[in-house]
Fold this protein.
Amino acid sequence: MPRPDITVRPARTGDVRAVRSLVEEYARQRILLGKELITLYEAVQEFVVAEFEGHVVGCGALHVLWEDLAEVRTLAVDPSVRGTGTGHLILSALLRRADDLGVTRLFCLTFETAFFERHGFVEIEGTPVEPEVYAEMLRSHDEGVAEFLDLARVKPNTLGNSRMLRLTGGNA
């Protein structure tokens, strides 16, 4: 199937309800964690969206966790465009954004390990930060940071997905 003409751009507030709709479908399947609408509005600047024929057909976010560390979050593609490279376009845009910010390590929680491996991510165990950074990160109220730190309050991993990390120099 030929790849459709899909563009990836920074998300706008007008895209949030479409992003929520994508996320809700995957949350029902226990692939992604559900997000409150207010949470998506608060994080809209972290998102990029994929657009096809004027409709949002994919999304993904980059959430900075520390000076050199960020998390790829909420990567979702409408089932109608799965297999067209849309997810790769979104992740590539997030990798460029990470490079622009000076982030050298990217973390994600995912079931799609092969997809992320193609972009230079590898499965990890534990929390790859120094004890001083770990102590600072404990002060965050962000549930994603709590999952990254592998804290008991979010254990066991509620979705059962894999922890992955990408260092600068991966294949974008």
Remarks:
- Strands lie at 7-10, 47-52, 55-66, 69-77, 105-110, 121-123, 162-167.
- The longest helix spans residues 86-101.
